[in-house]
Design a protein that fits this description.
It is built from four helices and 27 strands. The protein is of the alpha/beta class and 260 residues long.
Length: 260
């Protein structure tokens, strides 16, 4: 299953039924899980840990050293989960001493020309559309959908089940379950279609809507809105997830859209 014109180091750990196409390079400190397909002209460097049944398209570079001046050659990893697809020319850098690992979860789709920088953590079932640039130490939670050409500032946190407009410039944390659009980026409602597709109950969707009415439509500041939410909206998993996100945000959550 390894093309004779591929270069695979004899110490690389290659699982069963792995395909490696012509002109691809796999270096020594690499592990590739069963059933993964590495197409032609792919470069997989030391520190790559690739799961089962992944597909990596031509031109991708996995586990390149970080583009970070504090990197001193320490041993770090770039970890790709199971059933994940990396399209043409995707680059995933390995970690630095800060977090040691760059992680892309399982069942993800990262489209062509995307860059995932050092120490990024991407959850499961995430879709990142073409030419998105993810800076260092960003966190993207499960089921997020990122539109094409998005620029994501370092250290930002994107919550689960969000939908982000293509071409967005993200420099604030994006809380769970929302749609984010406009320029500059702003809250434009909840991701109700995505929530219904993922079988959120009507009660949970209604709670999410109520929480964001306080956060974005009440003219209260974030601290006062959180206090009112805790007083007036019954405790639930979705309510508490949003509140925990807002309370622990280091960069602050994105602003509301000025409708007038």
């Amino acid at each position: 299953m390894i093309h004779p014109m591929a270069i695979v180091h004899p110490n690389a750990k290659i699982g069963e039924n792995v395909e490696i196409g012509p002109f691809s390079v796999v270096t020594e400190n690499v592990e590739i899980g069963d059933g993964t397909v590495i197409m032609n002209n792919v470069t997989i460097l030391d520190g790559a840990r690739i799961g089962r049944n992944c597909r990596i398209f031509p031109g991708a570079v996995i586990s390149g050293i970080p583009q970070d001046l504090k990197f001193r050659g320490e041993e770090t990893l770039a970890i790709i989960g199971d059933n994940t697809t990396l399209r043409e020319c995707v680059t995933v850098n390995r970690g630095t001493a800060s977090k040691e690992n760059t992680i892309v979860g399982s069942n993800c789709l990262i489209m062509a020309y995307c860059h995932v920088a050092h120490d990024v953590v991407i959850g499961n079932n995430v879709i990142i559309s073409n030419s998105t640039q993810v800076a260092g130490e960003v966190v993207i939670d499960d089921y997020a959908v990122i539109g094409g050409g998005t620029l994501i500032h370092q250290f930002t946190h994107i919550g689960p089940h969000v939908m982000i407009q293509g071409g967005a410039k993200i420099n604030k944390d994006i809380p769970p379950y929302v749609k984010a659009a406009r320029d500059p980026i702003a809250y434009t409602g909840i991701n109700i279609i995505g929530l219904r597709r993922r079988n959120f109950s009507p009660e949970d969707i209604n709670t999410i809507q109520e929480v964001y009415r306080y956060l974005y439509l009440s003219q209260l500041n974030v601290s006062d809105a959180i206090e009112r939410i805790e007083e007036e909206i019954p405790q639930s998993a979705v309510r508490d997830e949003i509140l925990d996100f807002a309370k622990t945000s280091k960069r602050g959550i994105l602003r509301g859209y000025e409708w007038c």
